[in-house]
Each structure stands twice: as C-alpha cells, then as structure tokens.
Amino acid sequence: MTTCCACGDKPGLAALGKVTRIRSFLFYFSPDSPLQRINSLTKLVMVVFLGTVAFMIENIYASLLLLSLVCGGLLLARIPGVFLKKIVMAMSGLLLIAALSHAFFSQVPGRITLFTLPWGSYFTERTFLFILTFYSRFLTASFISLIFLCTTREADVIVAMRFLRLPYVVCFTSALILRLISTLIDGWWVLVEAQRARGMEFSGSLIERMKRLSELASPLLANMFINIKKVDLALQARGFTLQTAHRTCFRHLKWTIYDYILLAAISALFILVAVDRYVYGYFSVS
Amino acid sequence: MNIQNRDNIPKVKTTHIVTFAFCTAVMAILCTAAGFLFAVIPGLPLGFCPAVPLMVPFALWFGGWGVAAAYIGCAIGGILKGTPVIVALPWVINDVFMAGIPLLAFRLLKADPGLNTRRDWVIFIIFGVVINTLIACAWGTWIPVYFGIWPIGAVAVIWVQYVIASLLLLGFIAPIILKGFTGFARRTGAYTEGFLT
C-alpha cells in the first residue's frame, strides 16, 4: 500500500474526518500549509544547501535578500509568532555573545572609528555592518532549520532515511531517539508534578528554582535506567534483532512536481552562489 | 594458534542500541535547555551546558555508545535551539573530545568508573576533568571563529570562560553521578567493559 507521508496520509485521515493540526518536531502545524506538499527529503536538502549558501554569502545585501526569502518560507509554514519568539529567545544568548565579541574584539578597518580599546581592537562603521551580516546569515540558516523542524513529523524523517537506503538499525535507532525526546520531556514534567503534589515548591528566585529542579536529576536518571530495561525487554519479547533484514515499510516517500521544482531551484542557487563566490569572488566582503 | 570461539566474542545487543537512544535523547534535551538558560541568565558563562556533567559518566558506562550519544545528542540539541545545521555538526565534535578522552584513559589504564580507589580519582581528574576540558574547549572556541560567530581576538576570553564552566560542572557534578549511579548502570545490560561491548 502506498500512502503519502508528505500530505499527511490522506486516505487514512479522510476516514477519521478533518484533521486540524499535525504534530511536528516542535509544535502542531496546519495540514493546509503549502510546505506540507513537499516531502521530508526535499526539505532536508533545502536545510543543508540553503544553510551552506547562507554562510557562503558575506555581502550584506545578498544576505538580507536570502533572509527575506527564508522569512517568506516561515510565513508559508504558518509558524505562530509566540513559538518563533521562544526560539529566538533560545538563540539570544549566542547572538548576544557574538555581537559583544565583535564589538570588543574585532579589528574591521573602516572610514569612521567610533572607539578604540586598550587591547588594540576598534569599532568602525564596517564593524556594525559585519555584525549585521553575521546576524542575517545566522538567522537565515537557523530559520531554514526551523521551517524543517516545524513542518516535518518524526515519521517523515524515518521515511526519508529509508528512501536513502540507510541500514534498518540506523533508521530504527533514529526513530527511537526522536520518540524518546518527547517521552523524556513528558517524564520530566510527571516528576515535577509528583514533587509538587508532595509539597515541593518551585517558586522563588531563578537560582532557587534551578537548585530545586536539579534535585530531580537523580529520579530522572534512575527512571532512565528503568526505562532502558523496559524498552529492551519489550524489543526482545517482539523478537527484534539487529540483523533484521528486508523489513516492510508502511509509509513511502512521495514525489510531487513541487519537490522537483524546489530541488532544481535550490541546486541552481547553490551552484550559482558557489561559482560566483569561489571563481569570480562575488558575495565576499573583500 | 589460539582461535577464540565466535560465541565468546561479546556482541552488540539491542540493549546497547536502546541505551544509546536514551542517552542521545537526554543529551538533546539538556543541550536544548542550555539555550534557554543563556536567555534567562544573561551572565552565565558560555560553556555552561547541563549536558556536560553527564557526558563523561555516559562514556565511562556505555563506552563508544556514550561518546556517540554525546555527539548526536548535542547536535540535535543545538539544531533544536536554533543553531544552523552546518554550524552545529562541526561544533559539537568538541563533545567527542569531552567524552572520548576519559573513555580512552579509563579503558587503557583499566580504571573503575565507580571511583573506588585513589588511582581512579587521579585518572578521572586528569583525563576526565582537566585534559578533556582543555582540548574540547579549544575546539569549541575555534570552530565558531571559522563561521564568523566571534572574531579571533575573542578566542582567549571565550576559551577561559568555557574552561571554567566545564571544569566546575565536571569537577563537582560528574563525580557525584559516577559514585551514585555506576552500580545502577552496571545492572543494565548495556554496561561496557571495552569500547563497544
């Protein structure tokens, strides 16, 4: 039976009625999103190629153009603003350190020197441009990854891996890891709630809260060992072995015209930028 | 010539695969959490990653599976917190050094991860806290320079804070985990005496 992984198993879903949300790696997304029509392998190629292109381009205008294209992709993916805010918050630490280190330790020559530091570093108008370009490149590459994570299901990644003829053990282990990430997070919250029910308070200053949360590390680790045993026994009970060969697959990768168009466009852009950058020297600061 | 019976050679079991998957998932979650820690505690040193004190125990208990879990878990965690794939994959090789160096030392010098003797402690402090931290942090501060995340002039300052954070995490938390949970780990079938089995 051939079912479509990219468009959300339409035959099965039709029988169940209208599906309003599909669970991706990071959140529930709309099945009406145009990016749903693209298969996971195309999206994976997009992440790698466009991520590389983002770091090949050092020119601010080309970099901002690419960023705006990727932001268009974010809009198409219909990622909620609240969610996007959380991800940007997670990146903010690294972005802040990057900006500060460029401000205090870089030596980018320019026409106007705003300040010079005792250790020989100076801040010019081009340092500011340099930081802006870095932000643009970094955010472009991050947002592409985000589009992938927000519009792809765990099962779709495994389907792509099977399509690439990776060994079954690799596909199985990857599926297990992806499943366990959400299971362990749920397990963590169960522990937190259990301790709350026993009267443990997680309020107070941030340091106090972190100290109390760290006290949960021991039961979490103990639970991990217990779960390893349970999962292992379950696998053995089902006769699973590492030598399992020729497994059948319920889902298959489906290619549509959108995949071919997108793959061609991304490959053309990658080749164009690579040739321009390394043969003709375009897109570089120098 | 003494030919070893094939049945006596330790084999990779499903337990190893399951343990590897669990360790990788834990690493991924902790690395993702680190991104949010930086956001809510602005003064936190850069290398302050909650996954670091678990990397060494996982490597010492589960051998190469623990090292692989450190690499893949931190790569997944890095990608989940917004680091571009092309940056995250070479960057987290530092975790291979962080977990791999103590593993090599413990296996070659036949030390016990339970830290029962003074010799075990000395090996742990030299290879599991100091040397691995210095090398891993050197890698962790140089790779971002290549991608333009920070300039070459900032390497020394960032390396120092990376080293301090990692030394604190490894020096205080990893021994507690090793002393407290090595018995537990031994009772799972995944505990390895060698590098993979």
Architecture overview:
The complex is a heterodimer of chains A (286) and B (197). With 286 residues, chain A is mainly alpha-helical. Chain A folds into two domains: 10-152 and 256-280, no CATH class; 165-237, no CATH class. Chain A has ten helices and four strands; from the N terminus they run H-E-E-H-H-H-E-E-H-H-H-H-H-H. Chain A has a two-stranded antiparallel sheet with strand order 1-2. In chain A, helix 2 packs antiparallel against helix 5 (125-151) and helix 2 (40-56) packs parallel to helix 10. The N and C termini of chain A lie far apart (56 Å). Chain B is mainly α and 197 residues long. Chain B has one domain (13-187): Orthogonal Bundle (Arp2/3 complex 21 kDa subunit ARPC3). Chain B has helices spanning 14-40, 52-62, 64-80, 85-91, 93-108, 118-146, 155-187. Chain B is globular. The relative contact order of chain B is 0.16. The interface between A and B is large, with 63 and 56 residues.
Our measurement of the CA-to-CA distance between the termini of chain B, rounded to an integer number of angstroms, reads 24 Å
Residue stretches of chain A low in confidence (pLDDT < 50, at least 5 long) are: 1-15
CATH class of chain B: Mainly Alpha
Shape of chain B: globular
Let me know the average pLDDT of chain A: 80
Question: What is the number of beta strands of chain B?
Answer: 0
User: Helix share of residues of chain A?
Assistant: 55-70%
The residue ranges of chain B in which pLDDT falls below 50 over 5 or more consecutive positions are: none
- Quaternary state reads heterodimer
Strand tally of chain A is 4
How much helicity do the residues of chain B have? over 70%
- Which chains have the largest interface? A-B, 63 and 56 residues
Categorize the overall geometry of chain A: globular
For the biggest sheet of chain B, the summary is: none
Major β-sheet annotation of chain A:
2 strands, antiparallel
> Beta-strand level of the residues of chain A, as a percent range?
under 5%
Give the strand line-up of the largest sheet of chain A: 1-2
CATH architecture label of chain B: Orthogonal Bundle
Helices and strands of chain B: which structural class? mainly alpha
